[in-house]
Fold this protein.
Amino acid sequence: MNRRNLTDHQWELLKDMIPGRAGAPGRTGVDNRLFLDAVLWMARTGAPWRDLPGLFGHWNTVWKRFSRWSKKSAWEIIFGVLAQNDPDLEYVSIDGTIVRAHQHSAGGRGGMKNKRLVDRGED
């Protein structure tokens, strides 16, 4: 597993504006970059918090900090900065390998079809 998901460039953009940085009021985070990597891992995998790998720290500690940052709207600021300065356009393009048609769209002639109802006469 890649320990660092944020690039050095992304970290340089963020390190002076996140809560818990050195010199900011309140408690200073031990490793803010590792915490951001943990949250990005959670977002990327969609796993439950309890499945957070131990190298990121205890899952409950990470979740509590995530929750506090959410209440402060820190994530809006962080993702706004990342989107503005380092957009990841990897998933914006669409090609024929990921576009699929509905199963009923293939083959056959289109249009409305009139079928004759055959009158079954009783003898």
Remarks:
- Residues 8-19+28-85 form one domain.
- The helical segments are 8-14, 32-45, 59-71, 74-85.
- Residues 52 and 72 are 23 Å apart (CA to CA).
- The radius of gyration is 26 Å.
